Amino acid sequence: MIGAYNRNPANGFKGGVHVVKPAKEARQAASKMLGQTLVTHRTGPTGRIVKKVLIGKSAEIAREIYFATLLDRASAAPLIVASTEGGVEIETVAAALAALLYLLLPNPDRNV
């Protein structure tokens, strides 16, 4: 698996991640990605030039769960968000399918 690396990445969008088989195709896929403009909802319409790629071994995934740690402004404490939907579009999931988000506000007094 090859992922385009940018300082503000949103891999998985418009060519940001490629799964190649066999592994020898990784060099060819990486060469095509380098120097290209990666356009995502986070980079804006002008995109960013791909200067680095990350290469790793892909794995069979039985179940995907997305986690994020955010700052809850109301309590000024960390908030853990989990969902079976989302990935790079977690903001869309939050807006359209809020019921699919699990929120946990850790409480150090109760070891949570």
Descriptive report:
This protein is of the alpha+beta class and 112 residues long. The chain folds into 2 domains: 54 residues, no CATH class; 45 residues, no CATH class. 13% of the residues lie in helices and 29% in strands. The chain has a 3-stranded antiparallel β-sheet with strand order 2-1-5, covered by helices on one side. A 3-stranded antiparallel β-sheet has the order 6-7-8. A two-stranded antiparallel sheet has the order 3-4.
What's the helix count?
Answer: 2
Structural class: alpha+beta
Q: Report the count of strand segments.
A: 8
> What is the subunit arrangement here?
single chain
Shape: elongated
Give the uncertain stretches in residue-range form. 7-13
Give the integer mean of the pLDDT values.
76
Gyration radius over CA: 17 Å
Biggest β-sheet description? 3 strands, antiparallel
SS strand fraction:
25-35%
Structurally, how many domains make up the residues?
A: 2
Cα(first) to Cα(last) distance is 36 Å
Order of helices and strands: EEHEEEEEHE
Helix content: 10-25%
What's this model, at a glance?
This protein is of the alpha+beta class and 112 residues long. It is 13% helix and 29% strand. The chain is elongated and about 50 Å long.
